[in-house]
Design goal:
10-stranded mixed beta sheet; 15 helices; 3-hydroxy-3-methylglutaryl-coenzyme A Reductase, Chain A, domain 2; alpha+beta; Alpha-Beta Plaits
């Protein structure tokens, strides 16, 4: 049967997206690979070597042919003094960038030797912002007033689509005949983008039916999802998290080979002046490196590294001459249920941190923010000590 289907694919009598319905989820990826190998004269044996279940990931991928393997490392122990994450943790990082894991691991060592990072989740909301066409500013303001006066009706419509999502507020923006409503949701332990989208669709129907405003796009780019934007830096999206640590001067000298004063000067001239001159939305050394590596390892939506990397690193020399370092991540969009978190390998990676499943999203947020802090400390320390190039040479990159 497989050979017959393969020949039909090559003759274009069967479409590659139809295979699951013909041969089932487990067999379909193999036939697609063979089709590509014959048609394109390539060898896909490594792509075809995997342990995850095609049936399990059918909601995560279409036209599956196999899996891409990314090397996975681990850093730690990382001591965290969080509200949700308390203790020492090992954190998985999936990356092909040499020296990254070693660098973050050094930062973990510095934090742990200094007594641990204090981490807190300050806010938690997923947003979706449809754009409505209105007759003008007066009409827009009438629509906003109607939303305020009928909030319980809109809330009920939105929440009718989900067991876990709660509509908790909105903001509005008016530009000419364009009205943007930025709905805010609590989404439990799911990242919640799909949840917010479906709920907002129902809320938007109620607004359309009662106000004369016309829904133009369910996402009006004021959410803001997977695009660099000052709005997320200012208002936040997903988890807003901070992590901080005070590093004794002797540990700065011993482990980072620099001084608190030189560390702070790098932050000022590189992260503040350099970022401002470049027009950056975030002021940091390399948030994206750590966030991307953890996202890949744990089944997060990797494109949302865009928002996650728009954060700020702060450094000061304390009155006692020690080093204070903190990171502010206003838009960390993560989940411990749903999406790619249930893929077998990603589930195991979350389990390393004790973060798989319900009740763990805020714990995960505190761990991730503390890991970002470790990455910032190590890289900035290397720059201050003039060791960056030396480290990459030593580690073969």
């Amino acid at each position: 049967m497989s050979e017959d289907i393969l020949k039909k694919l090559l003759r274009n009598e069967v479409k590659i997206y139809e295979l699951e319905n013909i041969v089932g989820e487990e067999k379909a990826p193999e036939i697609r690979r063979k089709f590509l190998e014959r048609k394109l004269h390539v060898d896909l044996k490594h792509i075809g070597s995997y342990t995850i279940s095609p049936k399990n990931v059918r909601k995560n991928i279409e036209n599956m042919i196999g899996a891409i393997q990314v090397p996975l490392g681990v850093v730690g122990p990382l001591k965290i003094l969080g509200e949700y994450a308390s203790g020492e943790f090992y954190v998985p990082l999936a990356t092909t960038e040499g020296a990254l894991v070693a660098s973050v691991n050094r930062g973990c060592s510095v934090i742990t030797a200094s007594g641990g990072a204090i981490a807190r989740v300050l806010d938690d909301k997923m947003t979706r912002a449809p754009v409505f066409k209105v007759q003008g500013v007066d009409h827009a303001l009438k629509v906003v007033k109607w939303i305020k006066d009928n909030w319980d009706t809109i809330k009920a419509a939105a929440e009718s689509t989900t067991r876990h999502g709660k509509l908790v507020g909105f903001q509005y923006f008016i530009a000419g005949k364009n009205l943007f409503i930025r709905f805010k949701y609590h989404t439990g332990d799911a990242m919640g983008m799909n949840m917010a989208t479906i709920a907002t669709n129902e809320a938007s129907k109620v607004i359309e039916e009662n106000t004369g405003a016309k829904l133009i796009a369910l996402s009006g780019n004021m959410c803001v999802d997977k695009k660099p934007a000052a709005l997320n830096l200012i208002l936040g999206r997903g988890k807003t998290v901070v992590a901080e640590v005070k590093i004794p001067r002797e540990i700065v000298k011993k482990k980072l080979k620099t001084t608190p004063e030189d560390f702070v000067e790098v932050v000022y001239r590189k992260i503040y002046v350099g970022s401002a001159l470049a027009g950056s939305y975030g002021f940091n050394a390399h948030f994206a490196n750590i966030i991307a590596a953890v996202f890949i390892a744990t089944g997060q939506d990797v494109a949302q590294v865009v928002e996650g990397s728009n954060g700020i690193t702060i450094a000061e020399v304390t009155e006692s001459g020690d080093l204070y370092v903190a990171v502010y991540l206003p838009s960390l969009e993560i989940g411990t249920v749903g999406g790619g978190t249930s893929v077998e390998t990603q589930r195991e990676a979350l389990s390393i941190m004790g973060c798989y499943g319900s009740g763990n999203a805020k714990k995960f947020a505190e761990i991730l923010a503390s890991t970002v802090l470790a990455g910032e400390i190590s890289l900035i320390g290397a720059l201050a000590a003039q060791h960056l190039a030396e480290a990459h040479k030593k580690l073969g990159r």
